[in-house]
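Researcher: Here's the sequence for the chain we discussed earlier.
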Amino acid sequence: MANTYTWKVAQLERLCATGEIQTVHYTVDARSENDQYTAGAYGSLGLDPADPDDMIPFADVDEADVISWLHAKFGPEKVEEIQTALDNQIAEQMSPTRAQGLPWAA
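Model: Thanks. This is the structure I predict for it:
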């Protein structure tokens, strides 16, 4: 199964005085190879304090920067864990192992 993943930044929390981003709210969307099945996740992650000498001004930060910071903070194992959880949701949609309903309802 070759699912695709799209990481997006939903919101940023920053210090007004410096523009330092402290918290990232993000989404991850997964799509099955045939686009028939999807799964999603939402989360928040606090960032480490920025080095003032290397900090990008808030107005110059782009989404790719923030996503790279997320991945670096999470590490490859956590990124894979999140994506695997989405894979599992898609697999459950494709071949359900649980169902609900009433046998007497039409």
